[in-house]
Amino acid sequence: xxxxxxxxxxxxxxxxxxxxxxxxxxxxxxxxxxxxxxxxxxxxxxxxxxxxxxxxxxxxxxxxxxxxxxxxxxxxxxxxxxxxxxxxxxxxxxxxxxxxxxxxxxxxxxxxxxxxxxxxxxxxxxxxxxxxxxxxxxxxxxxxxxxxxxxxxxxxxxxxxxxxxxxxxxxxxxxxxxxxxxxxxxxxxxxxxxxxxxxxxxxxxxxx
Length: 208
Known about the structure:
208 residues; minor pseudopilin epsh fold; mainly alpha; three-stranded antiparallel beta sheet
């Protein structure tokens, strides 16, 4: 398998026990090494199957394959963003100046933004994500829910921050207490990374 043609599970930027007690060693290891790895492995298997079918001119159920590929790539992309935007030293630091101003301009206050984001995450039905995005058309930060891993419906939105509220993200530590997990998420949120994503986007916007 050629590395540059297939997906690779990213290494965590911290140790498995670094996020305790918010996320336990066991919970983090299972989430990263099993759940995220499964999305990567499945996406690569589908790519291999497509490569083989094209070489041999086989007819496959392409609709089902591409649906599965979208699901697994979406899982890989969102988890990769998630690992980056949590950290052992996080939420108390606050957003950078540019992002903070954009949030206050949109939501009225930083506390209002946190409250809206938390309630959005709490109300995700079944498996999914709460995300902070930036709409490049309206120039507004917008909170969204993503069902499962369906990132392909937001082509003009840049994802700045993600929170995984699939049960596999918290069930060992919190059982059915999703709200507790969401509240604790703010303590490990890496505002440096989220702010840098926003600043990079603003730099890109100025060039266009």
